[in-house]
Structure formats: structure tokens, C-alpha cells
Amino acid sequence: MKVMKTQKSAALRILSVAIAFMLVFALSACAGEEAAKPDLTIGVSGTISSLDVNQEAGILNYQLAALTQEGLVSMGNDGEIVPSLAESWTDEDATVWKFKLREGAKFHDGTDVTADDVVYSIERAMDPEQSPGVSIYFPDYVDTVEKTADDEITVTLDGSHAGFIWAVSNTGGLLVTPKAWSEEAGAIGSPTDLIVGSGPYKVVDFEPSSHVTYEAVDTWWGGAPALTSLRVDFFGDEETRLLAFTQGDIDFALSIPVENADNWEKVEGATIEYYPERSYYGLTFDPTVEPFDDIHVRKAVALAVDKESIVSGSILEGHSEVASAITPPEQFVAVLSADEAKEQLDTITQYNYDIDAARAELAQSKVPDGFTTTIYYPDAYKNAGEASLAIADTLLEIGIKLEVKEIPLEQWLNEVGDGNQGIAWMIYLATTAEPGEIVAWLCDAQGSGINPANWTNEAAAEQVRLILSAESLEAQVPPTIESNEIAEQEAVYQPLWWGEAAIAWQEGVTVKDFTSFSLLSPDWPKLFT
Amino acid sequence: MKRAAGYIAKRILELIVSLVLLSFVIFSLLYIAPGDPARQLVGTKKATPELLARIRESYGLDDPFFVQYKRWIEGVLHFDFGKSIRTDQTVIEYVAPHASVTLQLVVMALVLSVIFGLMLGIVAAKSRGTKRDNVINTLALVGTSAPSFAVALLFLYVFALKFGWFPIYGIGNGSFGDSLRHLALPSIVLTFGVSALIVKITRSALLTEDSKDYTTFMRARAVLPARITFVQLKNVSAPVLTSTGLVLANLVAGTILVESVFSIPGLGNLLASSVTFHDVPVVQFIALALAFIVCASSALVDILVFLIDPLSGKARSIHKISTAGEKNR
User: Fold this and answer.
1) How many distinct structural domains can be found in chain B?
2) Would you say domain A7-235+506-527 falls under CATH 3.90.550.10?
3) Which of A187, A369, B46, B94 is the most buried (most CB within 10 A)?
4) Residues of chain A positioned with their CB less than 8 A from the CB of B58
5) Is the complex ipTM more than 0.95?
């Protein structure tokens, strides 16, 4: 007993010395002066390397760019197209687009936004070398981009393309910067060449992997921004973000994965709100990889996935919607209500969980006794990992051994559609509200390298051509549905769920009218007061 | 003197050869690893093979391995380390702010590790077999074996969230004092993990010295215990210095996880994300810079140990002990 006491007292002495040292260290380090607290501090998961969407075009880049930069048009809080640097526009057969530039719009450096700046920015966005992130929004159907008057820009396409309006939006491919500044800048959007735009906030400080700070400008054509200052802190670790929120260091947390939301709900005074993030989570079957070149194998796997249990069970706990198709219903907001869209999407061929039917399909395939394969999921999407394990369990019942492996998000991005994976995850977060945005890639069945499944199907490719050449967004709906239907008949995709995310905010702050589109609309901090 | 100069020249040559070999190995590994930076720049969006080919071409990613490596080496010889594929900034511009943060963190952790490691090592050796010795050994064992991210989260929860002594994340407003405040807890976490090595080496080296004749002689001459310890420390400086070099290597490796947990925009964070992005110029530069620091510090330690020359050091020490013993009498 005496030995234990002595040991305890020695431990306590050493611990006391260590704690005393830490206290002294902490107190002496408190000498640093406190910076002025911004009106709002937002915590986001992950980081960005560049503020220039032309260079790095992740969803977070777009959300932050909406604070500082503008396109000719923007996406409104309900997903509608709204005027931005163009106060009005006309489109002749969706082929000749004329944009009238807003009078009085100014960049943060005090210069006027001119037609030359817009033409320069479009040309820069079209160049894959200068703009690897957004040049895809300007396919080779753009014939000319011209300044046709001091306040007019005309873009002529090679035919009708109603979806082009999204290319010149801040959620697609156009974020206007001053021509003179851009030509002089070294690396646009880096800490040494902070992005210059015309939006409600200007960037005053940017430290990749740490934070970005904004201040309101008094030159924005939309009036005084809602806040005077705003700081966005980047977190590499989700646990640390939660601790910072618990401590009150951050006022808002954006894009909380639903699987972690329970922990956030436990924070005293916190409010959590879930919203559809217009994302698609599904499986891709590559018909160029054995044994997935056999349609019976693809159908067998699709039928063995219990997506209802994944969504309503312990993995997503009901915080997502079982997907009946590739495109989420909210994506049709410009032309259909969510219910109308859902009704049309439900007509598409479904592979609902039926283990006997799955077994029967596999029996007809060239691998009736089953096989072993691997699925990789990105580490940033833990729910995809948990779903993979659930899928592996049910596949084992029909003799298919699915090995599940986690890989870094960047590696996963690298390997999308690389032609080496028979079964793979596809996770897509839409930026625009164009009905055909997602299927225009997934169903463009022109062969290897064009779509993530590497499949070839002329009928589906033709539907995608119809989407791209539609004269109106309404006209995109039938080919969007039809191309998805062909993909399901071929069983190259198995849609699993349309994702939800959550936001959290502290007591004393209110959030109103938050929608799936809010974080991409101009001056989105006005929703948080 | 001539012998020392030859030794130093040899170590510098070894350092250069190591760096060249390392650069080749890293370049090769990144080249053969699956992945395509062009695909990453486009993201999960539709990208035609033509578009990807143009992006690859603009960064010279389609060139054969030796052409790419030769271009990189030629650049390095002219102090041009290339541009980051991810941000289009020059590598130096991109890496420098991260490097300064990591440098502060590593220096703080190194100083703390040496102070704590030496102090606890001495205490443990001088109280060999006691409960105090056991507690220190146990702490050292926990420090060595506990994963740094777990220790980081535990310390965050206890000392930042519960006690509120430290900030939870980030590097503050950029002022020196605020940076110090923000880097204090991460450096303590790193210290907890790496100082164990110094503790163990100091303890075991001092115990060896305790059984040597000169220690017995000093005790017989009634030299003060503090004086004896001081002399012993001088005599064990070689292994302790060597362990400090190893600590530096461990610290550099440890920053990757610790920076991630504390959301510190340092080199560790940048290296991890650059590797997965295949941002070859950035990875090459950071890896070589870190390798240079580790190799250079190791070489420096070896040179210092060489210069100390323990035999003559001991002889000088014994002479001083005799004098001190006579004074105490």
C-alpha cells in the first residue's frame, strides 16, 4: 500500500510540474494581441489551395467565390437564374446570346467592370491551360465572343444550347476579373495575388489550409452587404472543427456530414438544419472490365444492394433520400416542382433490393459461382465506406466477395473512370441548376474516357446531344430522363441516394430561407444574422 | 584540424549524394504511382480526353520520365524549383509560408524536448529504482507508443476545451505572440512523443557513467552531487547529441498528423495533400528540404561529436574534478 502511495505521489509531483509548465507557457504566450473579431466566423471541413475557380474548381471554391466574384448571371436562392454583371440578356434561338452590361459595376480595385474585362474573362475560362477547372463549361460549340458595344457582349454558338446560360454564371464557368490586373498577376487567387472581383466582399487575407478573411465593399451594385467582415476557417480534422464549435470559436459550420450530425446536436445551444445538397451517390459498373462486361453481373450486383436500409438504417439515419435515378429532383427546379420531377424520375427502371432475383441473374452470367472484386471509397466520404461494407455483406449472400478499401479523396478523383475498376463509387455535387448537368457526363456514352463508366451506347449519346443542343431548359427534361433510362436498362449505374448535408449554428444567431442553392448565391451571408 | 576538415568535407559529399538519390527515388515513385493531376484539376466533371491531354501538355506531364526528371534537375541547379500544378504559383512562393509555420513549431518542440528530455533523464537516473524513476519510465513509454493524433485530440479536449488554456486550432492573427500561443499545445504534443528518446538515452548514459571509476573517485573526494552530474553530462554529450538529431527527424515526421489535427497550415499538411494530388514539384521540394534538414542536422551532430573528442574531454574533466575536490575540502 505504501509503495502505491509513494508511486502516486511521485506521479502527482511530476504531473504538477508539467501542468505548471503548461500554464506558464500558456500565460506567457497570451502576450499576443487579439485580432478584431469578424462579424461571422465560419468553419468548413477541408481546405482550398487557390481562390481562383478557374484553377481549382471544388464545391468549396465555388461557395467562397460567390462572395467575391460574379459572372454575367448568378444563381438565386431558389436555384433560378438572376442578373448579375449583365442586367439583362437575350438569346436568339439559344444561339446568339447578347448580354447588356450593368452600369456602375466596379471591381474591388476601384476600376469599372467593362465589356473588355468580360470578354477577356470568358476567353481565359475557355482556355484549358489557364483554366483547367472551368474550361469544360465552354465546349467547342462556342464560335465567337465579342464586345459588340461598350456595354454589350455577344456570344455566338454553333447552334442552340440553352444550357449555355449556366456557363456564364458564377456557378459554372465565368467569374470575372479585371483584364489589366489578371494580365499582371502572377498566380491569380494565391496569397500573393489575392483574387480581385466585383462581388459584395473583397478578400483581405488568405492562408491556404488555415483561413480566408473578407471585408464588405461599398461599391457593390447590390447595395451594402449584410456583414462588414467575415472569416472562413479551414479544418483538416472533423473532430477539431466540432471542438472549435463547442468552444464557440466558430459561429457556423457548413456541410457537416450527416453521419456526424448527432455529435453536433449535442452541443449546448446549437441548431442543426438538414438540407438536400443536390448530390448523387451511386455505383458505377464499368462494362469494359471483366466480369462487369456481362449485363447479368451488373444487374445481379444492382439487385443485391439494399439502398432502402442504407438510407433509413444506421448509416444515414434517414438523412438522405433513396435515389430512383441519377439526377436529384431539386436539379429540375428551374422547370419543374420537386414533386413533378420525382414523378418523372420514378418512371425510370429501378433495381430494388431482391436477393433471389440477384441470385437468379448471377446464375445466368459467366460467373455463376461468384467472384472477388474491390471497391474504393474516398476518405472524405465515410458514409460511402459504411455503405460499401453493407453492400459487401449482401453481395456475399450471392457469392460475390467485395473488398472495401479507403483511399484519399485526391486519389479517388484521379481514378474516376480509369478503366481499371469494375465497380466504383460516383459522388457528384451539382453546382448549377441545369437539369441535364449530371447525366450530360454520366450518360454521354461515346465510349472510354468520355463517361465514368466507359460505356458505349449511341442511343444514350444521342440523348445527351439533345440535352446540350436544347433550345430551352424545359427541352432538356425529356432527354435527361431518357438517357438515364437507357443507362438503367444497360445497368451501368445503380443510383443509391440523393445526399443531404447539415449546417450548424450557435445560439443567438438565426438562419432564414436556407435552401440547397443558398451557398452559391451572391451575398449568401445575408441568410445568417 | 586537417583531419576535421577532411571529415566535414566527406559528410557534405555524403549529404549531396543522399539528396540526389532521394530526389530520384521520390520522382520515380510519384511517376509510377497511379493518378493524374490533370484529372484532379478538372474534378468530378465531364472531361474529354482532348481536354485532359491539353492540360497534361501544359504541365509537361506527358513527357517521358527522364525528360521530366532532367528538366527538374536543370531547374534546381538554377534555383528554379518549378510551379505548383495545383495553384500555378512558384514552388518557393507556395511553400515558404508553410515552411515558416513548421519551422516555428519544430523549433519550439525541439527546445522543449531537449529541456524536458534532459531534465527527466537526469531525475530518472539519479533516482534509479525509485517510484519517481518508474513514473518517468512509464511516461516515456506512453509518449513513445501513443499515436500522436490520439494524444493531440486528448490534449485538445483537456487543455484547450476543458481548461481553456490554449486555442483549439489555427495559427492566430499572424503576430509572433499569437503564433506562439497557437503553436504551444501542438509543440507540447510533439514533445510528449519525441522527448522520450532523450529521456531514455540520458538516463542510461548517466547510469553507465555512475559506475565508472572517475565517479567513484569524485564521490570519495566529496565533490558536490550537482558537480558530479555536470561532469557526467559533459561526458555523455555525444550520445545525447546524437539522440537530439534523431528527435529532429521524428519531429519533422510527427508534424504531418499534428498539423492536421490542429489545422495548422504547415509543411506536413502541405506535403500530405501534395502527395495525393501528385503535385510533383511541390512534393520534390518539400521532401528534399526536409531530407536536407534531417541529413544536415545528423551530419552536424556527427561533426560536433567528432570535434568533442571524448578522451581529451574526460581528461580535462578529471583534472577539473581534482581541483574542485581540493577546493571543497
Assistant:
1) 1
2) no
3) B94
4) 128-129
5) no
